[in-house]
Records
---
Amino acid sequence: METRAMKRTVISWWLMTCLLLGALLLFPAGVSPFNYDLIPTSPTVPVGSGARAQGMGGAFIAVADDATAASWNPGGLGQIEKPEMCVVGNYFLRREDWGNPLEDEGGSQSSSSDLNYLSFTYARNIWQRNIFFSINYQRLFDFNRSVQFEISNPYEHKNKVVTQKIDFHQEGSLYALSPAMSIEFIPGFYAGFTKNIWSDSKTGKSQWESKCRSVFTSSNSSLVDISEVSMSYENFTGENWTLGFLWQISQQFQLGGVYKTPFQASVICKSHYRFTSGLNLPDKERTFQINYPAAYGVGLSYRLGDSWTFAGDVTRTRWQDYTIVEKGREIGPFSKGDVVPKKDPAYSIRLGVERAFILDDKMGIVLPLRFGGFYDPEPSVNAPHDYYGASFGIGIADKHLALDFAYQYRTGPAVNATETGLVGANEVKILRHLFLSSLIFYY
């Protein structure tokens, strides 16, 4: 009887683990299937790339005057005066601090580095119009994450305690190939678009995988069970557009606007299970459809001479249109069974400033300093979680190249464990440090 009771306890714990992983690990940051906290972007609507822009807190919609413009506001490509090539690298360090989650204090830490952005931009005069072209390779989502924690629960017979140790590891990324174009319709007014093509066949890397190992032991240190679950996500496909304009109102003021279209993406999830207890589950292959919401933003920048640039952006994302569907049935990320809670849109606010020190006017040598801050909430089941951050950047540029560095700090709560059905667990605090370096060549 005791052995069967213990097996029932282990099985019930395993089922609870699956629910937990489905909420916290399959959708690792908040409730999104994409782990925003590892990159400078919203879970479903990427912001943009480049050390210069991120050093200004991401307030770049109305600035967008370098080779990364296609990722912020494609209308801004019209400001580029000569061909440019840009390469961006990034390194992040993410930490999760747990106050008292799941009856065990602790935390986890993960880090990653990779190519973030690669682009080439040039301009031509066609039909008496200045037309600007750009081809971009973007790393938009990063899924690298490692989590280890322990749960202890009193056993119902003979005052024994069953302990579960969980080791979760996930890695992978999503890339997009993004051609872009901008046209100068009238002097000082530019409009453009970027097409993001998400496909393994185009980028070769748009996939990720996760592995979770759970070890159950009793208080007398005897081994109860070991379970291993591995999942791979492949064949991610989808397309969407970014439409933007930039209006040079005067020598000082610029107004920019961006609209990111909603789109549908599909991904295949392959699952494999292994248990030492003899409980066997067949491998599974499931196809998910992810309906991404529209987002739109507006920005205003002010230039004071050749030295100062001030910028501010406001972006609205329609989270009410964000769903995950399997076989025609909505399964997330906001639904709880047959109950679909009210979903609210989220507003992001970004502010930034750049101070350029001219070291040699003849050689065009400039040393810029940048600062920024932002409020960028993430979606969750009940209401968007508040995330805040600050950034700093520095660079050096001349007539032939620009080298920039940026650091960004971001913090906020992860998904509340009560939203996953785990009563009594506290929220997890996310701390993320992001480092970016950009190199732009002018031809």
---
Amino acid sequence: MRVLTGARLVLPGGVTPGRIEVAGDRLAHVVPEDPGVPDTTEGDGETFDLGGAYVLPGFVDLHCHGGGGAAFTVGDEAEARTVAAFHLAHGTTTMLASLVTAPVETLVAHASVLGGLAAEGVVAGVHFEGPFLSAARCGAQDPAHLRAPDPDAFARMVDAAAGHARMMTFAPELPGATDLVARAVAAGVVAAVGHTDATYDETRAAIDAGASVATHLFNGMRPVHHREPGPVLACLAAPDVTCELINDGVHLAGATVAYVAATSRAALVTDAMGAAGMGDGTYQLGSMRITVAGDTATLAGTDTIAGSTLTMAAAVRRAVRDVGLDWPAVSVAASLMPARALGLADELGSLEKGKRADLVVLDPDDLEIRGVMRAGRWVSR
């Protein structure tokens, strides 16, 4: 038994002083401080006094390409492990490994590597962000390798991940996209809407076919117009669609983040590339050359935003300090909502008895990481 005392527990109903008891890889007790609640602490357990630090459930990142100078998009096992370790140290205890548009043969090869790591539990699965995306809204996706939805290519990519393909992003307006969305859902793959120039009705058709995530809402999408609301309002109007938000102060205004968070369907994501945690310079995102200056990554020689250098810990700090969200809303967006999107909310995403002991400890003053626990084991403290 490990006992964490002196904690500020971030629970769905608010923040409360309390303690957490961990047995093996599970949360054995989550106990708000209350004189009427008996102390079940076992005498031979380890006790950690957190000194008033905030304790949140481990962060769940649906969308990440890299970090720590490494990338998922090169198909190298060692680099993929580096990415996962970097983000774990920043509080991400569950993450998808996101690929970018590339030739199908390349995606198949990379999915095979990442599927093996998912089988080990290093990542939670593979996210294919491409190649079935819109050329008009491709952003940092390589337009040379975009293609129309293709059932055979889809099957090869999913098969290569060996049961660990967890999400695929589609542009609903492409011929055959709605049918492939339905096929993805039937195969247990979360279908997402993104990098799209679709109309409202085209997006609604994809949602009706089973699409349940909006890939970085607003970014890489036809903007809202009062006579053509497009994919943004279609996703916001659908109660079962989880809306990814890149809360780095570059992709979205704080007021936009706050508006979507008020729907309780926001999921903070990093969309990070290898430059996360590194300095300014030139990097690769798949086949595309990226320039990083300050907090902004752009396609080399352009002003097109290309992923981010964000961590989930930084996104959470910004949500509290700059956007002004309350702690329960931030925790839902950083953990519970993305866990629900992946069908993992019974196991992850909130501080509840019986769930996996994935925890993030934040300093009460500067909100920096003071500790990360995954499956009952301290990985950073």
